[in-house]
Specification:
It contains 1 helix and 5 strands; from the N terminus they run E-E-E-E-E-H. The protein is of the alpha+beta class. The radius of gyration is 13 Å and the shape is elongated. InterPro entries: Hydrogenase_HupF/HypC.
């Protein structure tokens, strides 16, 4: 997800039109900035990633969804 705004340890993030409030607590040693991309798991940003890594991950997720029998 890409960070749109930060307030303390909470970031408003978006990915593919979906917006979420995400905790940055786990990244407090290397705080990301607005515009950075983060990998999010259960509401927590767990890793900062490059834009290329983020786009590649979304491409893989889209391919998995297309291949899923119930998609």
């Amino acid at each position: 997800m890409q960070i749109e705004a930060i307030d303390g340890f909470t970031a408003r993030c978006q990915a593919k039109g979906v917006r979420r409030e995400v905790s940055l607590f786990m990244l407090q040693d290397e705080m990301p900035r607005v515009g950075d991309f983060v990998m999010v798991h259960v509401g927590y940003a767990i890793q900062t990633v490059s834009e290329a890594e983020a786009r590649t991950a979304w491409e893989v997720f889209d391919q998995l969804l297309k291949a899923a029998p119930d998609a």
